[in-house]
Design a protein that fits this description.
This protein has about 190 residues and is an alpha/beta fold. It has helices at about 10-15, 35-60, 75-85, 95-100, 105-115, 125-135, 145-150, 175-190, and strands at about 1-5, 20, 30, 65-70, 85-90, 100-105, 120, 140, 165. The two termini are about 20 Å apart.
């Protein structure tokens, strides 16, 4: 896992003995209409540094899939694109409607969504918005999926029977970070 800062997610990852890296990065949005060139340039520079570190991590760890748990961060998606690693965007929000935010670079966000190997939406509303706003077809998967219903113990992920998943996102509770941690723990315990 890659997380941007210290906090609850770090403590939970430590408790579950799941490897993680703290790589500070910024979100890729602003309050609608509140353009601040100086602040956005600073964010862009910090995210470029973070992207380089994530690229190195992907290569060092031999990551198979990069999963971004929100479109509010694009560092994982950009690093995956650069390294040609499959990427999954998990879209959990409607930026404008839910929060009054807009992407700093909407055309870049659209391109990242379109170039992702898969886009997962948490609801029909989010799924329809992805199609309408970005021309992206997404798969609808609700939060809190029953793991027992979908777990397939007879199906190895890769030839060496290991899956290396890089979770690159924030630790806010509503972003499903703990769901990802739990999924990795279950996969690890079942191997």
């Amino acid at each position: 896992a890659v997380i941007p800062s210290e906090g609850n997610l770090k403590r939970e990852l430590q408790r579950r003995k799941i490897p993680f890296y703290i790589i500070p990065f910024c979100e890729n949005h602003r309050v609608m209409g509140a353009r601040n060139w100086k602040e956005e340039l600073k964010k862009s520079f910090q995210n470029m540094q973070a992207m380089v570190r994530v690229i190195c991590l992907i290569r060092k760890e031999g990551v198979d899939i990069v999963h971004s748990n929100s479109t509010a961060a694009d560092v994982g998606a950009r690093a995956a694109l650069f390294t040609r690693t499959p990427h999954v965007y998990h879209v959990r929000e409607l930026m404008e409607e839910d929060f009054g935010w807009e992407y700093i670079n909407k055309s870049k966000m659209k391109a990242l969504l379109q170039k992702s190997g898969a886009v997962v939406s948490i609801s029909k509303t989010v799924q329809e918005a992805c199609q309408k706003k970005y021309g992206v077809r997404s798969i609808q998967i609700y939060n809190a999926v029953n793991i027992k219903r979908y777990y397939q113990p007879h199906r190895p992920f890769f030839a060496d029977n290991k899956m290396k998943l890089l979770f690159c996102g924030g630790g806010m509770e509503n972003k499903g970070a703990m769901d990802a941690v739990q999924a990795v723990k279950i996969l690890k315990d079942k191997k």
